[in-house]
Fold this sequence. Notes:
Structural class: mainly alpha
Shape: globular
Order of helices and strands: HHHHHHHHHHHHH
Amino acid sequence: xxxxxxxxxxxxxxxxxxxxxxxxxxxxxxxxxxxxxxxxxxxxxxxxxxxxxxxxxxxxxxxxxxxxxxxxxxxxxxxxxxxxxxxxxxxxxxxxxxxxxxxxxxxxxxxxxxxxxxxxxxxxxxxxxxxxxxxxxxxxxxxxxxxxxxxxxxxxxxxxxxxxxxxxxxxxxxxxxxxxxxxxxxxxxxxxxxxxxxxxxxxxxxxxxxxxxxxxxxxxxxxxxxxxxxxxxxxxxxxxxxxxxxxxxxxxxxxxxxxxxxxxxxxxxxxxxxxxxxxxxxxxxxxxxxxxxxxx
Length: 296
């Protein structure tokens, strides 16, 4: 079965994606610098580093040589999925991406009334679309759906569907981690349900990785033609990819669960900080905008 070709016709894609990621980084850094003028609302340097590392991991997955290597090894393909869904999204949310980018864009547009509608719209989405059950189901559906052999083969043979696949991993990854990280303008509320949320999120990964490990045949025939790459047979490559997914997901979710458990054991400091930050944001809103915020 033919793979996606990465010749001259597809060489513009990684360049365009690199430009988009660089522009995103510049917008974020502009907002980060603007927020430094206010000692109460500034974003710590470690959060800025977290955001930039998250963007860099996305670049590795979609625009680096790894994006071509995934045509030869299922392990490399699985590593891309893990970077896009499991590792990069929480780093981006930890960087306070919404607050910094909105600050930069709104300062650039000089649209002050819109500046105060933006947090309101995020809170509205959080109450409806960004609910934990919606985020969990969308992430599980993307993970399982794109690993159905027929759908997997379609994405590997079409550049358009391959782009849709990668985009869906990023979007559902961001959705999944939103209720866990609870970035601005959310109010951080330590909750035992988030630990259960992470536990149940491991189940689709465990089922998929277990199936790939113990299956005695190659599930994705698209990799049969690239067997013996780096000394791997197609079946050994499949088992290695499954082990990588199971290990990475387990470790990342375990770390996130440990952090949430620490917040549950000592929630006062976290709550005081987040409530103070929200109060500061509300005071900055004019009376008309404040009335809209108080409605929520």
